[in-house]
Amino acid sequence: MSDPVERIADALERLSPAPLEPPDFKAADAFVWHINPDRVQPVGKVNRVEMDLLVGIDRSRDTLLENTQQFARGLPANNALLWGARGMGKSSLVKAVHAAVLAQGLPLKIVELQREDLASVGRLLNILRVSTERFLLFCDDLSFSHDDQHYKSLKAVLDGGIEGRPENVVFYATSNRRHLMPRDMIENERSTAINPSEAVEEKVSLSDRFGLWLGFHPCDQDEYLAMIRGYCDAYGIDIDNETLRAEAIEWQATRGARSGRVAWQYFTDLAGRHGVSI
Question: Can you tell me the distance from the alpha carbon of 181 to that of 189, in angstroms, rounded to the nearest whole number?
Answer without folding.
Answer: 11
